Amino acid sequence: QNYQHFFKDKRILEVGSGAGVVGLAVASIAQQSTVILTDLSIYLPNIQENVAKNRGKFSSCCKVQVEALDWTQQIREDLRNQIDVILVSDCVYYEDGIEPLVSVLANLSHSNTTIFCSYEERKDKLRFYELFFERIREKFESVIKCEE
Q1: Which of 36, 76, 125, 131 sits 20 to 30 Å CA-CA off 58?
Q2: Distance (Å, rounded) from C-alpha 12 to C-alpha 74?
Q3: 10: which residues sit within 8 A by CB, 6+ positions away?
Q4: What is the pTM of this model?
């Protein structure tokens, strides 16, 4: 309930959706919003299946879409600087993926975009997280990092 205002009347996109769990959870509380679950084309059938199985759990006024998004490719014009909320969950797992991810976030976002990042802290990936947040601080005006 505390976070519903972040997801009302928004265009929301999850990068690297995997199974789509985070985006589907947001879709269950989003109101008058579009939630776009993205990943590489190879993963889309799994995401589409999960969307179909969970369709009854979405708010009736929330539209859910599944689309391919390759971080190394050009962002489509209809997405460029058009996303209000970006969800990034467990997407930092190798160094070569950091620059493309940060670039995608910068190209999707506009001046009022909120980006939610979450990850399971793995000791062997700590250097990658530090590098990711360093690059994020260079690209964006403010970064709030909460840890539990």
Answers
A1: 76
A2: 19
A3: 30, 33, 34, 84, 85
A4: 0.92
DSSP string of 82-103, one letter each residue: -EEEEEEES---SGGGHHHHHH
113 contacts 85 by C-beta, under 8 angstroms: yes
pLDDT at site 120: 85
What would you report as the CA-atom Rg of the chain, rounded to the nearest whole angstrom? 15
Tokens of 29: 């509380």
Contact 13, 38 (CB under 8 A): yes
> 112: how many CB neighbours lie within 10 A of its CB?
7
Task: Provide φ and ψ at 32, rounded to 5°.
Answer: 50, 45
Q: Is 147's pLDDT higher than 70?
A: no
Average pLDDT score, the chain: 91
| DSSP symbol at 31 | B
